[in-house]
Sequence to fold (194 residues):
Amino acid sequence: MERHEERSLIERAIAGERQAAGDLIRAHQRSVYAYILRMSGRPDVAEDIVQEAFVRVLGNLHRFDFRFRFSTWLFTIARRLYMNAMAKNRPAYDTDYVGSMGGKGAVPETSMYADERQQVQHDAIQSALLSLSEEQREIIILFHQLDWPISLIASHLDMPEGTIKSHLHRGRKRLRVLFKDQATLAKQLAGVAQ
Fold:
């Protein structure tokens, strides 16, 4: 969404126009949900946090500073809510559900084997992400899933750009090791099965 369109929606929502508020939510809901889902690994936690984030955003929309990006403000609120929730209790992860999110879904010409393979890949990615430190996971998700530039991530997390780059590098390196280990294990299991 272009910045001027977003500004118009925000101004109309501040004025009390429900349709504008709904449009603003719909424009950002999926990306915030995907972000929190990848961070938490649990759809119930992601739903609760995203809902609370939008309640807070809409309740404080009149305080939004138009010099900044709305998405950054929204993601900051969602992130703080997530961090507070994690401080209260550490969730169990539901990788089966997380793995199914973000996929293209089944199409008629897709074979069952391809669906199973895609599910295994999604599960492996989510499992690997959950093995990273909280900071590395968040930076990887913001950079690769949401296409945020390093400068925006640094501003969002209140860290120097060099630190973001270091976390990104170490997180990618750790993911490569995890994926290599998983591939080695898969080959060993395939050899045993034959």
